[in-house]
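Z., the sequence and structure:
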Amino acid sequence: MQKYMLLGLLGLCSWEDMKRKELKIVYILLFGIGGMVLHLFYPVCSIYSILWGILLGVIMMLLSWISRGSIGMGDGILLVVTGIYLGGNNNLELFLTGLLLAALWSLSLLAFRKKNRKEEIAFVPFLLVSYITMILRWAV
C-alpha cells in the first residue's frame, strides 16, 4: 500500500513541479500524515530508519534556507515525507539516484544549448523515475 501511495505522491508532485516549478505543501503534508497512519498498522521499517530518512529532508530544507531558495524548500519537505515511507537507506538511494539523473539531464541540456546554467529544472520528476527504478528492482 505504501508503495502505491508514494508513487501517487511523486506522480502528482512531478506534474506540479513541471507545470509550475513549485509544489503545493498541502498535498505533501496529507500524504505524510497518511504515511504515518499506515506505519501504525503496517510498519515496513523501524522508527530509527524513518527518523534517519526524515533527517535527509530536514538537511535539504536547511540547505534551501542557506542558499536562499537555490534549492527548493518543497523538495526538502517532499524528502521528509518520502523518508516516512522509505526509511533512511531507501530515501538516500532515492535522493542520490534522482540527483544523478538530474545532473545527467542538465549536462545534456547544457551540451545541446537548450538551457543555460542559470535556468531551473524540475527535480521531482527525477525522484519519480528513481522511485520507479527502485520498485522494478524490488520486483526482481
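The helical segments are 2-20, 25-41, 47-66, 73-86, 88-111, 124-139. Residues 64 and 71 are 5 Å apart (CA to CA).

Let me know what you think.
H.
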